[in-house]
Amino acid sequence: MADFLKKNGFRLVVMVLLLGLIVYFGLTLLKGNEKQYPMSKAAPEFQLENIDGAQVSLSQLQGKAKLVYFFYATCPDVCLPTTYTLSKVQDALAKKGAFGTKASIVSISFDPTKDTRPALNEFAGRYHADPKGWFFLRGDEKKTIELAEKYGVMVVKDDKTGTFSHSNAILLVDSSNKIRSFYNGNDPDLNIDEVAEDLIRLSKS
């Protein structure tokens, strides 16, 4: 054994070093392939009424990645097509076996006067929303608008018409309830599968 080590010691050292380098560079490449997200900010807590009358809080959804979208159901423009986009994300997650288990969608109305529970229930039905993972929430108008602003979504009400102007952002929140990024709800080229993969990836964070 001693003679073998004397004759082959140098080769063994070289092999160990090479193996170490392969492992190091392999791990570096894997790390480099991890998707980087531009944010890591604690998402503001909320507790709002669901369409079934139950109270739903952000802390209840910890452990799952989430899309959070502020909207109102009588919106004349962006909210409807964006909700349709969310329905496609729901379908993509369902195909991957992740909807409701690893990822959820949270749609929060800032117009509780018109968006009653029955109205939101009807609205959710138009998009075949699965209640096991898609929550349509409502609460006090002023407090909900303030909540939206804490999430970086600007909302302005026109008191004459009762309509709202708002930024059309879909917030990406990880399983630890941190805001990691956002998507432009107006983007016609938004990659649905990529959004679903982001949610699955962040469900493990």
Q: What attributes does this structure have?
A:
single chain; alpha+beta; two-stranded antiparallel sheet; 10 strands
What would you say this structure looks like, in words?
This protein is of the alpha+beta class and 205 residues long. It has helices at 2-33, 79-95, 117-126, 141-150, 192-202; strands at residues 41-42, 47-49, 55-57, 65-71, 103-109, 134-137, 155-158, 163-166, 169-173, 178-184. The protein has a six-stranded mixed sheet. It has a two-stranded antiparallel sheet with strand order 2-3. Strands 7-8 form a two-stranded antiparallel sheet. Helix 2 crosses helix 5. The longest helix is centred in the N-terminal third of the chain and has 32 residues, at 2-33. It is globular.
The profile of the biggest β sheet is: 6 strands, mixed
N/C terminus separation: 48 Å
Structural category is alpha+beta
Strand line-up in the sheet with most strands: 1-10-9-4-5-6
User: How many E strands?
Assistant: 10
The general outline is globular
Radius of gyration, Cα only, in angstroms? 23 Å
Number of DSSP helical runs: 5
Order of helices and strands: HEEEEHEHEHEEEEH
Taking pLDDT < 50 over at least 5 consecutive residues as the criterion, the unreliable ranges are: 4-33
